[in-house]
């Protein structure tokens, strides 16, 4: 895999307007995954956003390697989201906002990914309070709620995008979409799927389109034990960039 960089003045065109693109849930630290972070700046990569997770959040102090990686992606026209660990609503409002301020001050993120966001109706107002506060940290910040499952429909009004599936291919290929999602455009939903074999990549793309997900991430990496399936790029990186970037006919 070549270590590509962006030529001076080049910009990431991202996905086609209204087209499918990538949501990267969090590569490993740039020191451990330098090629992965560099590849995201390749012109033509259909990137919607990439999550920066230093140490389950922004870390205790600015990390120069993360600062550089975020700056390169931002300069290439990409959107970097700071990872805020909600832990299904167990993190306090103050902790989340404090992490958000550090992400903005240290890494100039363009929004936030609220990992393990609650999905129940009873937690909606608490999540709204967090999101409203985050939006006050800057203009045009993108907010993605990482539920990993279909939440109560009211969450669509609380954020820019909802992750309505996060899990293994074995579960995804037989998954069903909630009926209420048909009332919203694809750009409101994201699917993250690991363990997708190369031979089933086209099928995975078609499922996402059929279920109305405008942002996706498919990888052949598998999660087992402490292994993070999102930490590195899939072996079929070039193929998925080409396939998603050009689109697949219905």
From TrEMBL:
A Pfam family reported for this protein in Swiss-Prot or TrEMBL: Spherulin4
Biological source species: Streptomyces goshikiensis
Protein name, as recorded: Spherulation-specific family 4 protein
């Amino acid at each position: 895999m070549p270590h590509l960089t962006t030529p001076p003045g080049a910009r990431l065109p991202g996905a086609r307007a209204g087209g499918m693109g990538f949501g990267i849930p969090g590569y490993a630290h740039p020191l451990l995954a330098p090629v992965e972070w560099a590849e995201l700046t390749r012109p033509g990569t259909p990137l919607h956003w990439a999550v920066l997770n230093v140490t389950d959040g922004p870390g205790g102090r600015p990390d120069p390697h993360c600062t550089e990686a975020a700056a390169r992606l931002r300069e290439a026209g990409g959107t970097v989201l700071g990872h805020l660990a909600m832990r299904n609503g167990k993190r306090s409002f103050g902790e989340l906002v404090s992490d958000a301020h550090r992400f903005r001050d240290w890494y100039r993120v363009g929004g936030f990914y609220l990992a393990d966001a609650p999905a129940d109706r009873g937690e909606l107002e608490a999540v709204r309070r967090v999101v409203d506060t985050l939006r006050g940290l800057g203009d045009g910040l993108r907010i993605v709620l990482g539920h990993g499952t279909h939440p109560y429909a009211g969450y669509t009004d609380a954020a820019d995008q909802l992750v309505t599936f996060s899990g293994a291919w074995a579960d995804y290929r037989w998954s069903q979409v909630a009926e209420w999602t048909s009332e919203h455009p694809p750009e409101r939903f994201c699917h993250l799927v690991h363990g997708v074999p190369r031979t089933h990549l086209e099928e995975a793309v078609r499922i996402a389109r059929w279920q109305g997900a405008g942002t996706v991430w498919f990888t052949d990496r598998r999660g087992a034990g402490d292994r993070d399936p999102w930490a590195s790029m899939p072996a079929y990186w070039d193929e998925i960039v080409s396939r998603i970037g050009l689109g697949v006919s219905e």
